[in-house]
Amino acid sequence: MNAVNKVTFKQKLQNYIKNPASLCLFILVCVMALISVAVFLYMVIYIFVKGIPYIKPQLFAMKYTSDNVSLMPALINTVTMTLASLLIALPLGILSAVYLVEYARPKSKLVAAVRLTSETLSGIPSIVFGLFGMLMFVTAFRWGYSMLAGAFTLAIMILPLIMRTTEEALRSVPVSFREGSFALGAGRLRTVFAIILPAAMPGILSGVILAIGRVVGETAALIYTSGTVAQIPKNLMGSGRTLAVHMFALSSEGFHINEAYATGVILLIIVFFINRLSNTIAKKLSKGKKQ
Asked: CB within 8 A of 193, min separation 6: which ones?
């Protein structure tokens, strides 16, 4: 096996040498990959070195004060904001993708309009979503600066992402799955929910991971909608800050830069844990599907 791999590598290397353009492109891709990894490692190591010495028990107090600069209220608000946003965006995004792939005609004007709209929304800066959320949910709906206004704003932000990833995941399911289900007498609705969606679940989870990452790291949209109050609100109509907004507030004030780095460490750990958990679930679903 090793001999085969060595021969294959030598053959590829000879092909690259014969074609200078391919060799240059291969080297460029390798260099860019190394630069990306190096920048990522530098950022992570820098934040950990700056933040870990300042992770103290007072940072995890349940109530924020100007003395302890606790991140626990922001952490709880982050979890609440993430769950509320996903609760709004996931059903809409998944069902929209199911309609586009399984029910709508591929070349219809409605499908083209929906895809154009979702792609346009994906490229809009987050601060524009924040201004829209402030005008719509905070002012027009009179919700004020609240967690609910922030959740709806973030749901609109991540909706195109969930739609596109779910759509691609549904398209990756083999046609034989649908044909086999129809041959056994199952209807389209049962085929979608019993066969297609479970098979596409790993791809859908990938979109959910990306959506969670965007929600957790968002600041501009939430400053204009959920506010910057450093306490746990009594309900979704109360104002509260997430971890990302908490970091921004500490760094902008200039008095608690070290605590901002410590908050960044906690945020990185949370994102890493979420990614690992989601990947584990996706692998288990893939193994169960193969069995």
From this structure: none
> Domain check: are 76 and 151 in the same one?
yes
Which pTM does this prediction carry? 0.84
How many of the other CB atoms lie within 10 Å of CB of 198? 15
Which range marks the domain in which residue 159 is found?
57-290
Q: Are residue 128 and residue 263 in the same domain, yes or no?
A: yes
Q: Could you give the CA distance from residue 214 to residue 288 in angstroms, rounded to a whole number?
A: 29
Query: Tokens in use for 93?
Result: 């995004």
Same domain, 106 and 33: no
Looking at residue 196, the DSSP 8-state letter turns out to be I
Identity of the residue numbered 16: Y
Spatial distance between the Cα atoms of 203 and 184, rounded to a whole number of angstroms: 26
Tokens standing for residue 136:
């719509």
For residues 98 and 112, membership in a common domain is answered with: yes
Contact by Cβ (8 Å): 144, 239: yes
Which of 263, 254, 264 has the alpha carbon at shortest distance from 43? 264
- Average pLDDT by stretches of 10, the chain with 291 residues: 52 69 82 94 92 89 86 92 94 92 83 85 89 94 93 94 91 88 85 88 86 88 91 91 90 85 89 80 65 56
- Counted domains in the chain: 2
Whether 42 and 79 map to the same domain: the answer is: no
Q: Determine the Cα–Cα distance for residues 276 and 87; give it in Å rounded to an integer.
A: 21
Q: Are residues 161 and 211 in the same domain?
A: yes
Same domain, 143 and 122: yes
Which of these, 164, 188, 202, lies nearest to 290 by C-alpha position?
202
Q: How many helices (H) and strands (E) would you count in the chain?
A: 12, 0
161 and 208 fall within a common domain? yes
